[in-house]
């Protein structure tokens, strides 16, 4: 039974529920001043979030729940909503009231969920959100009359503009004070009998008492999780009892699995009678007209690919000048700080080559991150991403997944962590696990700096800016192209996932809000800089120490005593190079390098790759540090791209040849595209599945990355100019 | 290398190692137990809390 709401407590708890993409999180942000992520596509919120709301003199803890079409709770995110509303979420009492956010354009369908909440006996307020869009489409809802019919306050709101907030505050206070509950479905007598029969049977077996609303869920839902959580005693099989209770309905001429929908919609039809006015002649909306082209089975895909190409081409070309400015700024800081540390050469190397050189090398890629998130936010907020899911459904269907997996995989293009969390919207546990296992293959923003470095240093000088932009675009599809056969193999041979039906509500196209886009860009930029200032700095210091030490005097004496003539600066550079070659990092790198030799990697790239397992960007800091120590501080040193291009093999069969060339650059990019080099993602995958699957993903992606890099290098050296 | 340099460099290395170990501990412990790594907007707790 649901726990008693905490009316006596000084802080009210109010839940915000509703169908997906009805603007719950926008309303939540408006009421609490929070900045939770919003998006014009379903499934953005996958776990509950709470914030404080000053509601007409009362302090309210407002809880934003994941969007749900019903309380049948078939996916993990919907289960969170049901458990919270029934007071069964660990340590969480049931809410004092519920705000059900409904899309005013789809009132009848949205009220289905509200009528299920009515069954739980919770005070309810209906927020008729997106009322402006409904009115524009000629749909008018008489809120006052609807309120009288439903028996609960109904408030017209436009969350994006902050309209209706005052009225909502009053309505929530009224609903709590009056315990206003929505009119419940007048269930046929047979439903009552089936529920009583089930209750008696369960109580006899020692199952904890369940409320009528919960028992109805057990009877109506094909696979209800209610019984599971009620605590079934060992050895008790509830199936015969459940079947017998459903037989009571069948005998009365009611189909148990369709009864709820039929009875509720009939009830909602009565309640909304005379309250909704539709336009006499329905006009074809702009959304429908645009969708005729953008979701066309041929043109839709062509436009999708073309749009992605433009996005990546823009990321590559627009960022150029900004990168130059940051590079100049980093060099200025180095030249300003270096003289201050002239008396302490070791410390000077740590600060200039290690910290500033390493971190500066990563920070240089901030413009690309900003431009990427500008486009991602733009596409999300307009509603285009939902179309992307629709277009991808066919391709995903081939590998046993469906368009529902596209939203988590799309989120993984920003960062795999929210992507893995977003799989909670997937009902089927095996389809969910497959999506978790392939989501990190999507090219997250941490890979972007690696691509841009390699493309800028080796692809653009050889093939021009057009091919450089195309390569960046293609690298973002490598992971997706590999994810499809991997998902197919996982489904076919390991998990045995069955094809799932895909239902996606297409949100209307909306003009994006510039402020939201700027905020998301800022959030990502801050995250990127914080990462550069924490993990990358720490890794850089360790890498620097491993490259700098040991420094035996014998190495210097040997160089100075050698017969090769040259200026003191040239001798210094030769000494530095000799020190690096015998450093701890070089020794370790040489030990492992044979493993990566088939991919064309030297020991420096090898240690860069190995150091990047905690976080991908570390390779840039590693290469920045190694090549920083190798260059003279006072010398007019070029950027990292120029330095990489000039490095040559000093030994082995390739002695004298460039270390980096086009095939090596492509092999590095493919390795980074396919490898799971993110400690945080592995931990989140373990949390969402278990450590076994997380380690499986780590192992298969590492092997795949190695094989991909070797294949790319071997094919590249035969067909591409080096 | 002077005494000052030795101390400064050693302190930086110890601090970096300690920081990374703490991160690993958080990833293995706090996240695995259902906590929050605070790295992404989804996991970040809302303002005002």
Please, could you describe this protein's structure?
The complex is a heterodimer of chains A (722) and B (49). Chain A is mainly alpha-helical. Among the domains of chain A are: 12-178, 3-Layer(aba) Sandwich (Rossmann fold); 190-253, no CATH class; 522-719, no CATH class. Helix content of chain A is 61%, strand content 6%. Chain A is built from 31 helices and 8 strands. In chain A, the strands form 2 sheets. Chain A has a 6-stranded mixed beta sheet with strand order 2-3-1-4-5-7, sandwiched between helices. In chain A, strand 2 and strand 3 form a beta hairpin. In chain A, helix 7 (189-204) crosses helix 8 (212-220) and helix 21 packs parallel to helix 29. Chain A is elongated and about 105 Å long. In chain A, 49% of the residues are buried. With 49 residues, chain B is an all-alpha fold. Chain B has one domain (1-49). Chain B is 59% helix and 0% strand. Chain B contains 1 helix and no strands. Chain B has one helix at residues 3-31. Residues 31-49 of chain B have low confidence and may be disordered. The chains are: A mainly alpha (722), B mainly alpha (49). Chain A binds chain B through residues 32-37, 46-47, 49-52, 344, 346-347, 350, 415, 417-418, 421-422, 523, 527, 531, 534-535, 537-539, 541-542, 545, 614, 679-680, 682-684, 686-687, 691, and chain B through 1-2, 4-5, 8-9, 12-13, 15-17, 19-20, 23-24, 27-28, 31-32, 34, 37, 39-43, 45-49.
